[in-house]
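Name: Serine/threonine-protein phosphatase 4 regulatory subunit 3
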Amino acid sequence: MTDTRRRVKVYTLNEDRQWDDRGTGHVSSAYVERLKGMSLLVRAESDGSLLLESKINPNTAYQKQQDTLIVWSEAENYDLALSFQEKAGCDEIWEKICQVQGKDPSVDITQELIDESEEERFDEMSSPGLELPPCELSRLEEVAELVASSLPSPLRREKLSLALENEGYIRKLLELFRVCEDLENREGLHHLYDIIKGIFLLNRTALFEVMFSEECIMDVIGCLEFDPSLPQPRRHREFLTTTARFKEVIPISDPELRQKIHQTYRVQYIQDMVLPTPSVFEENMLSTLHSFIFFNKVEIVGMLQDDEKFLTELFAQLTDEATDDDKRHELVNFLKEFCAFSQTLQPQNRDAFFKTLSNMGVLPALEVILGMDDVQVRGAATDIFSYLVEYNPSMVREFVMQESQQNDDVSHTLTDSCDPSIYTLSSLLVSILQDILLINLIIEHMICDTDPELGGAIQLMGLLRTLVDPENMLATANKTEKTEFLSFFYKHCMHVLSAPLLANTTEEKPSKDDFQTCQLLALIVELLTFCVEHHTYHIKNYIINKDILRRVLVLTASQHAFLALCALRFMRKIIGLKDEFYNRYIMRNFLFEPVVKAFLNNGSRYNLINSAIIEMFEYVRVEDVKSLTAHIIENYWKALEDVDYVQTFKGLKLRYEQQRERQDNPKLDSMRSILRNHRFRRDARTLEDEEEMWFNTDEEDLEDGEAVVPPSDKMKNDEDLMDPISKFMERKKLKDSEEKEVLTGKGSLSGRQSPNFKLSFSSSPKASLSSPPTASLHPGSPGSPSSPGTGSRSSPPMAAVTTKGGLVGLVDYPDDDEEDEDEEDTDSKEESPPLSKKSKLSS
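Structure predicted for Serine/threonine-protein phosphatase 4 regulatory subunit 3:
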């Protein structure tokens, strides 16, 4: 068998719901006399041994998945799968299976099709219900076969369920179970296992109500202990009655609630531990069992929520100092599980649940618990706090602000005293009150997390981020939660959060550079970065007043790259705001210095630190942050000028020089601003001669990305625009005659008089024309020799008007005597080459 179409892998499903590879071979279908029917045969490609021999049973449900997979179940909880190398081979075998079962090969699941005719189905639906055999020991095998044969058909499952309900059959079966167990009738017990398991798969709530009743549930669990595939029965009832203990941390007086808790625990145990792992086709048949457990939990939460006496006692014992540690641990764990159950509630019910907890004082109770030394109790309290924050952060914020207000009132009362000794004592008391604020307790637990991986600290940092996130803060007509809470947070809590950072960055390098400390500092810096992005003046004032950025940049000297990158992200986020307050703070304190040092210390290594620093400088260049550009070049250019593998720093230098040029030539800058502020759309028509003046500015002097286009007729009438242009025209006409004399002079032309000059503008008070005189031609420009269509006509010569103050203008205005100029140009063509309409500006 070398046909790759029939090449398959054979898989079986183990108890852990994982597919085990049984080998690779080639599949075929043939009649097997021993099995008396068409069968699937798979022989190993290595030695030809038989990997699989499976009869195609007419009642077996086969399923085709993903075009190359066929899955089915055989015997008791035994699932098989064939994975084909090619789709064509899968289709061939699928057709064989469908042919044996009389199915249409276009279906993907043979079980879904009922091969009864419409008339037969109508007759069966109109026929009386299913008749069950008498519930006797001798008929148990018959009952088991009836249940197994009814499961594939939805109609038969429905009839079987009704028969079991109406005749009270389950209770009779459980009586037989007790008889079989007393007689040690192993065969009967095995049949009862199959029957009870099949009843579970009927997925019927009414049957579950009977099976999970107080008098029946332990017998049902007993039936499921005798699995025929196991050599010895399980001991589930022994575990539930002797090992598992129901512990009441607060006595429950309602008997119905007690019974519901017992039932839910046992049904959950049946689902998780007693029932065998469902096969591929049985998973959906247990959906009602999941729903039964779900609604039980909802009912338990509702009943506890309505019992005010119970909740009052719970929170009273939680906060009572006399409660011993073991008892408090049990109470906290109960409250944690109570909150976990609440996650199954619908939104409106969950609202009522958390409102009830809030009214009962859950947050003050958590504040007391978090102040205790027991690590396990604090961990459970943290989980409860996370449920509250994730559900309703505004509720938590409102509580901590009210708590702070109460503390402020106490401090004001104490500080009003005139006695200096009392005043000193009151100051100490105010400090203590601030330290026991709920949020400060959370921050302290985050800082003091003993876990080497800081798992608890990471969880608490996420909760803090949720609390300080303005996106989930409310704004009403009477008050703004954002303003009030952030003012509180920066006044009472931010100093606690930043304390480890400030303590560890007093020198040029971090005082402690071990992994756990660095991981904690990274969490703090990440939260500060979040604050920079989402808060405005609060974080700005704090950073500038406390010099936080300088302290954070000390971390760039850490041996741990992840911490150095956190510090760079913090500065990058600040620069990205393009806020001049921040920029002046950075320049005044020379805060680029540690960044440049980190860049140079990194050397030639191409890593994240190198890329992050270069990207920061590139952002300054691309966004043209003028103040930072000048600061970087003036203070750090010598250290960076040799970096040539990227053009970032040279680009910064060019930006700086362009800024200086604009500062030294204010009139040029004002003309550029006129051009920048009056941009018009350039149409396809030929430019008129009087509009060509707009293109005589050197391209290199324009800022990146600027497009200067000629004005429309309407804008030419604008007085603000025409005023400087008109003056410019007048100056041009005054010089026009002098230019003609220079171009048509009879004697030899000196370098200063030659039309073949290149204009050079200096930043000195006196501007001069550069020497030697050379023409600057732009290839492809209207006046260059390479431009098509120029013919014998040369472009008009350029003229420069200079004063002691620098450049006045650079124009190419043809006047009404253009034809005369053309003749003069023709006469002088042999003496000098034509000039481009754009002269080269250089500085």
